[in-house]
Each structure stands twice: as C-alpha cells, then as structure tokens.
Amino acid sequence: MKKVYKAHVLYTKERSRFEVLENGYVAVEDGRVVGVSTDLSSLGCDEQMVTDFGDCLLIPAMNDMHVHAPQYRNQGIAMDLELLPWLENYTFPEEMKYADMAYAERMYRRFIRDLWRFGTMRACVFATIHTDSTRLLMQLFQEAGMGAMVGKVAMNRNCPPGLSETVEEMLEGNEALIAEYNQPDALVRPIITPRFVPSCTPEMLQACGDLAARYQIPVQSHLSENLSEIALVQTLEKDSTCYGDAYNRYGLFGQTPTIMAHCVWTAGEELELMKKNGVMVAHCPTSNFNIASGLAPIRTFLEEGLKVGLGSDISGGHDLSIFRMMVYAIQVSKMHYQKNQDRKFLTLSEVFWLATKSSGSFFGKVGSFEPGYEFDAVVIDDHDLNHDNYSLLHRLERYIYLGDDRQIKHRFCQGQEIKEPKII
Ligand SMILES: [Zn+2]
What is the Cα–Cα distance from 247 to 281, expressed in whole angstroms? Predict the structure, then answer.
C-alpha cells in the first residue's frame, strides 16, 4: 500500500548540493520511494494517504560504514594510546568476553539500541571470532528491523590465544553463518572480515578471499591506518608492493564489494589499485584523531573518484553519531586546507552525501529519496534549535552540529517505522 510522508524534505542526489522541498511529500510503496514532490496530486496520492510531520525535517537515515560492536563497552576509554598498545591492552581483552553469550547479549542489545537512537539504520559491523555471539548479533539486528552487514572476525596471529582460531574454525563458523544468512537483498547479511593483515597469516587471508569468491560475499577490513602498522605489514607481507596489494593478492580488495576503514596514508599505487578495483573507503575521523593515526585525505579521494563513506569506528572512535562524523570530516578537511589551500575543504552537502547516498550505495539503493531508493529516513523535530526562523538548510546544519538523539522523532528502514530496540 502506498504511503506518503509530509515534512520539509532534504537529501543529496548529487554531492555538490542539497535537494530541498519545503512542505514536501515523499511517496513510499513496498519499502521504496516512488516519488517526491511538493505537489501531492502529481504523486497520484490524496490527503488520506498522508502522514503529516508538520514543521519537522525529513532526511535519509544514517549509515555507519565501520564499527566494532564488541568494543561498545570501551567507548570513551583508553583514548590516550596509539593503535597497537590500544589493541593489546584494551580491545583484545574486551573482545575475548564475547565467548560468553549472556555478556554478548547484554552489550549487543545496547549497541543496537544506541545505533537506533542516533538514526543509524544500516551498518558494516565487526563482531569477534566467536560464531555463536556473531549469530546472536545478526539475530538482534534482524529483530530490530535494522540493516547490517555483520562480520565474524578472522584472526590467527599477533593476537592472544583466546582470540585466535584456526583456518578450519574460521571456515566452519563462516560457512554456518553464510548458510543461514546469505540471502541476496536480505537486510542482515554476512561480510568476510579479516581483522587486518597483521592479525592474519597468509593461509587465513587466502581462505577469506576464497570464501568471499565462492559465495560472492563482500569484504571489510582495515587499511593504512597508522605508520607503525604499515611498517609491520611490510615485514609480514614482503612480496606485496603496498598494504592494499597485500589484500589484493588474496582476493580481498575489490574482487567482491569491499570496504576498507581509514586509508589515512593511502596514496600512489594503493590509491590507484582502490580506484581500479572500486574499493570503498570508510572514513573514521574521530578514530583517526583518538588513536593519533593522522588525517585522511578525503578531498583527494573524491577528486580521484574513489568511493567514500563515513564510520564511527567505535571504540577507536568515541562518538556513535554519524551526524557528528560529518562535522569531524569537515574539520579534518580544513586541517588539510591549512597546509594546501588548493585543496578545498569539504562542504556540508558533500559530507551529508558521504553519510547518506555514498555510504548507502554499499547496501544497494539506499541513502536518497530518488524513486527506487529504499525508504530509510529520520524525522527531526528541531524546534528547540530553531528559535529564530532559520532557513531549512541552516536548520539542518544546526541539527548536524548541535543536535542529538532527542530531536529524532521517527526512524524508518526499508519503509518500516523502527521502534526502540529492547535492552536488558
Ligand atoms: Zn576498526
């Protein structure tokens, strides 16, 4: 049945500008947008079909392109370390706890509830090596009605014994999850997830690549985040010509849809390889600040035609809000601009497009209100921020910079209104 939502509609068909419809209508049928207009009759609809959100803003929902669900407890702690000591002292001990299903359920429910709070309806998620709690995480996303690609993490070197598994165990666990969840177009799907090169032997990387090819499953991992990590990869994968090439050799770099977090130091051959193979960058600006990794050159990536999305990278990042990630992405680009004023900093429409339509492309037709797109949306009641007749674009900008979950009144994923997921 066709439904129509009325509000001030803002979205980005192109990255250079917003589409703004004051008192606009978005018509939705079978979970997808079928039309958007300020003229109801042009949509073939009448007033009875309309849900009126009044003076609220209606925008596409957020997508988090890189986040570690089992690090949720560690959000906002150990922010004074670099990547490798942070992993050893905080992250690995926390992830080990996910052998315990009761603990996993408590934390994973809270994680999903909080994604919901901040209007994030789709995410690319790292779980842990544990198959049972990874399955639970997938079930909980499905129960919530929210979209996710969830990865059982593969790792077997440079990690504590409690977080290591054999190649056979990795294959067995993934095969089970793939058999249960790998339906094309499903809202919750598996994604092949080698943690990163330092954590995986060549045999493990090869097995991951083979699995992705056999079942045509996407891949996620980390790339060129930190200089000491890149130096380590050079010693571990001596034949590879760059970090990205180390993935490429094992079929983990665009042979199936691939997203790589960070890419702070990506340039030259690695950048060319990403472009050629269509590998997407998950830009995680807060994480890059917190772990002292550096400033990812997003303007360069966009000029080169790379695909880019935004990620919170909890708990390297401390902030789950993708709205706030837009702010940080602009700030990072302004730091680049300080050094090179030929390189223009990112605009609001560009970061909004990164968070919605560009990120959403990894899930299919997601992140816009153009006809054919899945209706993933949030309704924002910003009256407490709109105290002096701001323009619609300034209202959106103020919400992005100043707002939080209190202003989000409704959330939709694939056309369904998503109610608050239960926590225990
Ligand atoms: Zn990460």
Answer: 14
